[in-house]
Amino acid sequence: MTPQRPEDRPRVVLGVSGGIAAYKACEVLRRLTESGHSVRVVPTESALRFVGAATFEALSGQPVTTGVFTDVEQVPHVRLGQEADLVVVAPATADLMARAAHGQADDLLTSTLLTARCPVLMAPAMHTEMWEHPATRDNVATLRGHGVTVAEPDSGRLTGADTGKGRLPDPAEITDIARLLLAAPGALPRDLEGRRVVVSAGGTREPLDPVRYLGNRSSGRQGYALARVAAQRGAQVTLVTAHTVDLVDPAGVRVVRVGTADELRTAMLAESDGADAVVMAAAVADFRPVEHTEHKIKKSDRDPDPVALTRNPDVLAELVEARADGKLDAALLVGFAAETGDADTTVLDHGRAKLARKGCELLVVNAVGEGQAFEVEDNAGWLLGVDGTEQPIPYGAKAVLASTLWDAVSGQLNGK
Predict the structure, then answer these.
(1) pTM for the full model?
(2) Is 316 marked within a binding site?
(3) Structural domains of the chain, with CATH
(4) Do 233 and 407 form a contact (C-beta atoms < 8 A)?
(5) Under a CB-based contact definition with an 8 Å cutoff, are residues 244 and 224 in contact?
(6) Backbone angles phi, psi at 380, to 5 degrees
(7) In a 3-state reduction of DSSP, which class is residue 271?
(8) What EC number(s) has UniProt assigned to this enzyme (predicted)?
């Protein structure tokens, strides 16, 4: 494969403001550069008190300046914003957001923000009291009104012994959101504010003995992407997650952990009542062993008896049935179907039949195969509606598929 030329790579400006979380910008920078982006770091003077310019220059391969009077002949305070495909500010302190909200341009970073006509992502980081202060909330609303994506901060350990909301989202999450905005600049409108959604993710594990289980290849990435995108679009999100592979919990999302299909069923029935939308993205094992032995089955034992299996509950079907019986108040139910075609029936035909059988409003159909659906970063498929609509979803990041699904959900919830 021919290496991508520097001029062909997506151009990202990474702004870094002066908070203790500035050191995490180095990981954001590394992830962006290693995924093929050309990144120019623009720190504030305060940020350089936490991380030196030499570190940013070494990681980005580009010069680092803070003021507008360096390389004046190149007019960097205008050019950087004009030429960028994306501007990311991580961390975005309360001070930086206040200056940006009011159009100040007293350094290179705020000047770049004023001239940028590309998507702008700000990842806040500050103490809880600062995040919750009315002035900060007003500034966030102003920035969002100007089209800036202000990410929901995480909750957890802050500076010192403090704990609460205001922690910088994980660098992996910031990078995922950045990739989403590069691929689909309008992917994160605040159209789910005031909505409560429930998403399931991961693969259930059905124990055979204390060591072994029946499971599947689900990594949980698609469900996590759905939860992350919904939270960034303003929803109150609960993520019911079975087994996943090294995934960071999405910022601003309540996480409920389960193991087996029965545990997932119980959690989904409890969490879904009163939800505006429920998305069943988890890969629920279809069968479980009838018996769970108390000790490990040894290879030295006599030939073991065949493992008897019994069918697991169909969680989505139970949600649909509970709603029909008036036992569950949920506005919109969405399913996922991982399918393979055969000699007589295509993947899409299988999906159409499953939508009719399940009784949900929307169904995402994925074709399973080498490098598709499971254990990969990207996905593709079709979004089927009970009204007969069929929308192809081209191959791309799972966050893009998530955004496409939430577009459809938002449209139905808001009567569009």
Answers:
(1) 0.91
(2) yes
(3) 9-183 (3.40.50.1950), 196-413 (3.40.50.10300)
(4) no
(5) yes
(6) -155, 170
(7) helix
(8) 4.1.1.36, 6.3.2.5
The CA-atom distances, in angstroms, between 409 and each of 81, 107, 277 are: 34, 41, 8
Query: What is the per-residue pLDDT across 60-111, written as a single tens digit (0 to 9) for each?
Result: 999 999 866 566 556 456 789 899 999 999 999 999 999 999 999 999 999 9
The structure tokens listed for 232 are 């960034």
Q: In angstroms, rounded to a whole number, what is the distance separating the alpha carbons of residues 362 and 79?
A: 45
379 is catalytic: no
* Structure tokens belonging to residue 76: 């960097």
Bridge partners of 267, per DSSP, are none
Q: In one letter, which amino acid is 310?
A: T
Radius of gyration, CA atoms only, the chain: 24
Distance between CA atoms of residues 58 and 63, nearest Å: 9
Q: Does 262 show up as a binding residue in the annotation?
A: no
CA dihedral 113, 35, 400, 7 (to 10 degrees): 60
Residue of 216, 312, 366, 379 marked active site: 216
Q: Please write the tens of the pLDDT for every residue from 22-36.
A: 999 999 999 999 999
415: CB partners within 8 A, 6+ apart: none
* Alpha-carbon torsion (206, 209, 210, 211), positive or negative: negative
What sign for the dihedral angle of Cα 95, 97, 100, 102?
Answer: negative
Q: Any known ligand binding at 329? A: no
Is position 56 annotated in a ligand binding site? no
Are residues 65 and 57 in contact, defined by beta-carbon separation less than 8 angstroms? no
pLDDT tens string 349-378: 888 999 999 899 999 998 775 555 555 678
DSSP 242: -
Distance of CA 105 to the CA centre of its chain: 32
Contact at 8 Å (CB) between 328 and 269? yes
